[in-house]
Amino acid sequence: MKELPATLLLRPFGLETLAVVTWRRTAESLWVEAAVPALALVLAGLGPVLLAMRATGAETARRPPSARPRAMSLLRLTGVTKRYAGMPRPPSTASR
User: Fold this and answer.
1) What's the rounded Cα separation, in Å, for the pair 80 and 21?
2) pLDDT tens, residue by residue, 28-57
3) Considering just the CA atoms, what is the radius of gyration of the chain in Å?
């Protein structure tokens, strides 16, 4: 089951969550009025994502390219290049 129908079914009477407010306003084409709760939803979800990234050590994306493992060296370690070394190469499309 999707989250929004579950939210609509399981919420207490009279309680309007940010998702419900955004959904109701966009259903009525009130785009400007739906922008504020939608932005609040995005900002509320951004905090836990940043905390999880910091906790898991997601700083690998910030490493310089020389510090990152290279794909070919990983392929050599697994022996993939040895298995496919004798296979013929596909015809080049540049010669057409």
Assistant:
1) 53
2) 999 999 999 999 999 999 999 988 888 887
3) 25
